[in-house]
Write a structure and sequence with these properties.
127 residues; mainly alpha; 4 helices; elongated
């Protein structure tokens, strides 16, 4: 598969996943608000025979797929990401490939620390 075609497929899948997240989020928020489920797994209210909890599961897996697709998108555009970070850091002259790569790695590590920190706080708050 040509690179351009692969970029298009990944971007189209990312858009579809994002739209799915928006739509399921709207269903969970406005169509099946909290309290619309029933006890003992018997829903009092549902949409297309799916309860609020089942819509939440779909929403979660769409979020996971969106995260994976964004990582693939970043990998496909890695040189652009590194070059843009290099320019944001104020470098006027062309940086060495190693320096550009270092900016990209620091960026990814920062994202991992940010997401990991959020998860740690959320897990500790829930217990």
């Amino acid at each position: 598969m040509r690179r351009n075609t692969l970029n298009f497929v990944v971007d189209a899948a990312t858009l579809a996943s994002l739209l799915g997240m928006v739509l399921t989020g709207l269903v969970i928020r406005f169509v099946l608000p909290p309290g619309s489920g029933g006890r003992n797994c018997v829903p009092r209210q549902s949409l297309w025979e799916l309860s609020r909890h089942q819509w939440g599961d779909i929403h979660y897996w769409l979020a996971v797929s969106l995260g994976v697709l964004v990582l693939i998108h970043l990998a496909l555009h890695w040189s652009w990401v590194c070059g843009t970070l290099d320019r944001f850091c104020g470098r006027r002259s062309k940086a060495s490939p190693m320096r550009r790569m270092a900016y990209g790695i620091v960026f990814v590590i920062s994202l991992v620390v940010l997401v990991g920190g959020f998860l740690i706080v959320a897990i500790n708050s829930a217990t």
